[in-house]
Amino acid sequence: MVSENQLIDKKFYETLVSEEQASYAIQVLGEAYLEEQKNEVPELGEIRYSQGELYYHFKDYEAAIFKWESISSELRPWARKNSADAYYQLGMLSTAEDLYKSIEAESLVLRAEVALQLFSLYIEEARFDLASRTIKDVVDFHPDYPNVTEVARSFFEDQRDWNSAIDLAANEGIRTGVLSWFDVLQGYVDYGYTAALQPEYFVPVLETLHAEDSQRFEKLVLSLWGIYEKQPSYFTWLNTINAFFMKAEIDKRNTWYGIVKTYKDTYISLLDGSHFIKELEEIIPNTLTNWLKLTDKNSSLFASTAVLAWNEIFRGSLDALVVQEAETMHRGASVHHESFTESVELYQTIIRWAEQLELQVGEKSKWMVNQLMDRSARTLLIAGMDPLGSALVVNGLSGEAVISEGSAAFITVSDSRQPEINQISNGGILPLPDLEAIEESSNYRESIFEVKFPSLLLEEQALTFVNTPGLTGSAAVRNEFYTLTHMADGLLVTLDAQSPFTERERELVLDVRKRTPHLPIHFVLTNLEKIFNEHDAIRILEDTADRIHDYIPEAELFAYSSQHHQGDAASFIWRNFSGDHLPVDRTGNMLFYIRKTLAALLEKRIEMENQHVESIRWNEEMVIKLNGAIHQVTDQETENVRSITKAYKLLKDDVRNDLTGRIPDLLRDCASLLKEDSDFRRIHILLNEEMNVRIQDYVKNRVLPKFHVSLQDWINESKEDFNQSQLLLNEMAEGFNTLYGDERIELACDYRVLDDWSRDAERMTSMVQVDDMNILMRHTPSQLLLKGAGKLFGGITQNKGTLYNQYKKYLETMDYDDVASTVAAKFLSQFVLFEKSLERDIAMFFRHPYNVLNQHTEQCQIEISDSQSALDRMRELPELYRDPITLFKIRLRQYEMIQDSRK
């Protein structure tokens, strides 16, 4: 029987030639050919096919093709394939390709061989798309053909065709169950090549791998989780993996620590305030169900409390059997040891969320939490009904007179290399220069004062003292004290030996014990030196200790006096408040501050909404006031333009009237210059010159000085007008600044306008020049007649008298109004230009107030718009604030359940 391998390797001839004949196989086949021809119906196909194989091996490809072309038996498909191979070897790739494509065969092996040859041909011709399509076709119809999947994988990787490579690895892993294919796929996932694929793609892979190898299954799940966590399809992945685990049969012997931890991290990240409840209402229940299903005993407390906390808020969203299982698991769970760290992370998450939404958490509250987070230090709260007692103890133990007698402030005392004093309020942290500044502070009742200085005792014991004012005071002081008990690692209550452990002190201590059950409470008895009888002092000490033990059996009482050695008190502190014996539940205290912070944020959200409403109202009122002010400035400007320009016009008209009224008289007076013996042939020239001289003289010596003085008076009067306007604007600015609460608006006008006017007045009154005019040399009929007569008769003596009389009469009766008007027009030309600029200059005077008022109006409009947008956003999306706080409360409730389990 012929094997397909013989056909593939072109060794079919071995069926006709024995091993002994192999060395002269061509001769053997030739002889067989001749022998077969002798038959009546010769069967030459197998011989020719074998001859073609031998020619091919001897690289006589043309002879091989000749032999194979004549094959018509069942070997014909293989012969055609071999012929195509020969054409391939001859470099006739197009012919080879056509021949390969023409082969039709039922044999999968032959189809695979033909396809692989085409695949190689396409690669050689760099026709990679066809090569890819061809190798995919082979994998599709004959994936078990030797090395075909490895060839395909190598090709896809070389071409960086990762989608095809991923499909190959996934499909082969599912088809064969061979784990190496899953390892290949794992590598693609780790390199990020699968990031663009939808999570549903991997479900069949996970189903197969879950059944084959649990460790590889977990590794692939964690890698996919890490990839999709950074993708927009993250929620699709969570739904996909949750659906998988909901259906999967879980072998409890498989402990998937990585998946369980990832479920925990996912749960925490989903409840970090960045998602709405609507987005989570389907994902979280399934996430919790699967987490609980997969968890082991060591992590069961966190998973079960997460289920129970969610169910408290969203009842009915979880299957009743799941809740029941969580309750059972909760009762038998191991103690969770990361509670404090996780509580701190929750607090920090809340703070980050609040800052993103511009919800301010009080600085004092954050400072208290920071004190609590410092696990290397301990905080001792020292309090009593009498502030003198606590001040005495703090000053004595710290070695410095830090607390003044009767101080009503909360003061912390701690060690530091550099002395430092800070006032800590919800508004921020303010450095203070000295201790006296504490009592002088305006809001010391709402503050905590932090005093740091070098102290050996505080350094050695890593202690911070918190001194409280007398607790007989206001409810606000007591509430602050109760808040501080959650920050403290211990409470030291000071008692007065003259009236120790009164009813009020007992009630205070029991109230503290109820609020903070784990807080160590001890007592110090002061003023014992005032008991002069030693026997009475011992009796008071013992009696007080007995009464204390009736309520707090573990408490110790220390008799403190200013004469005591500091070491005795330090030993008492160390013995009772050392870290080795400190049962204080810092996690519980952290949860207290988280709950307090969430309550404050809810109030802050309401406060923000009210602030936006008030901002809109206030700014709208300010816009009205500012617009009114702008109208007032406009009115002032208009009035100043009217009054100042009117005064200037009157001034200018006075000058014009002076010139037009006086110049004609000056010119007529020139008739007195005529004499009977004057040279009438030139008299008109001389008179014209004199007339111009008299005009220039009058303008220079009479008009200009008077005009200069008038201009200065006008400038001074304008200044008074401006001053009145500035006074009004100052009052306006003062009113606005009262409304703003600071010196925000200054409506200073630009008085440089007056300086410009003064310079212009000096320039115009010092540089006026009226050009000479042809007064008597114009060509009017009368002038022509006189000039002609003068030239004609000027030399005849008997005619001079007549000319004299005619000239004089003419000069005295001549109309000089046009000359005067021309002089006035020339004289006032630059003053007219100046007048035209007055309105612009006055506008410049008011420009700054206009700009300031307009800028504040625009700013008010911006604040109105911003506040309205924020208000609309708050009202349209109440879940923007409500949902994160609800989710934070769920996590808080979970941590409280964990905390209760520890008890």
Features:
TRAFAC_Dynamin-like_GTPase; GTP-binding protein; 66% helix; TPR-like_helical_dom_sf; flat; nine-stranded mixed beta sheet; P-loop_NTPase; mainly alpha; 4 domains; Rossmann fold; 903 residues; single chain
Nutshell version of this structure?
With 903 residues, the protein is mainly α.
Protein described:
The protein is 66% helix and 6% strand. With 903 residues, it is mainly alpha-helical. It has four domains: 1-104, no CATH class; 161-254; 376-584, Rossmann fold, CATH 3.40.50.300; 615-853, no CATH class. It has a nine-stranded mixed sheet, sandwiched between helices. Helix 18 packs across helix 19 (320-331) and helix 20 runs antiparallel to helix 37. It is flat and about 175 Å long. The two termini are 83 Å apart. It comes from Peribacillus psychrosaccharolyticus (Bacillus psychrosaccharolyticus). This is GTP-binding protein.
List the helices and strands and how they pair.
Elements: H1 4-9, H2 25-37, H3 45-57, H4 61-69, H5 76-89, H6 93-102, H7 108-124, H8 128-141, H9 148-158, H10 162-176, H11 179-190, H12 203-212, H13 214-228, H14 234-247, H15 257-270, H16 277-280, H17 283-294, H18 300-313, H19 320-331, H20 339-356, H21 363-373, E1 378-384, H22 387-398, E2 410-415, E3 420-425, E4 428-431, H23 436-440, E5 448-453, H24 456-460, E6 463-467, H25 475-485, E7 490-496, H26 503-515, E8 521-526, H27 534-549, E9 557-559, H28 566-577, H29 586-668, H30 683-740, H31 752-766, H32 781-793, H33 797-813, H34 817-836, H35 838-845, H36 847-876, H37 879-902
Parallel strand pairs: 1-6, 1-7, 2-5, 7-8, 8-9
Antiparallel strand pairs: 2-6, 3-4, 3-5
